[in-house]
Amino acid sequence: MIITLTPDIEQALADQAHKLGTTPEQLALDSLRERFAPELACDAQSEAEKKRMLAEFLRDHVGVLNSSEHVPGGARMSEDTGRKFTEILIKKHRRRSK
Q: Of 48 and 92, which is predicted with more confidence?
């Protein structure tokens, strides 16, 4: 079955799915299941829980560290990463060449 959504419904579905951290397709299926097959909604809910986004799963365990709390002036480890990586590769290559 193919269901064609009007632009306003499609946008509302996409917005709500984004807020819930799911896909518009999954939200539409869950909503239809709750409305037309509520006895299956519990099974689908537990299945949806298994498919939660990793970021949502880890949100209570992930944080931000300010390096200036540990290193005067901050470690600035996220700056010039491409250049730093290139320097490491060059040093490694030189050591192997000797």
A: 92
Q: Per-residue pLDDT averaged across 43-54, rounded? A: 62
Q: What is the reported pTM? A: 0.42
CA distance 57 to 63: 13
Q: Average pLDDT of the chain?
A: 83
Burial class from Cβ neighbours inside 10 Å (0-12, 13-18, 19+) for residue 17 reads middle
Distances (CA, A) of 90 to 1, 81, 96: 58, 14, 10
Q: Are 41 and 30 in contact (CB under 8 A)?
A: yes
The residue extents of the domains of the chain are 1-60, 64-98
Q: And the tokens for 27? A: 């939200």
CA 36 to chain centre: 30
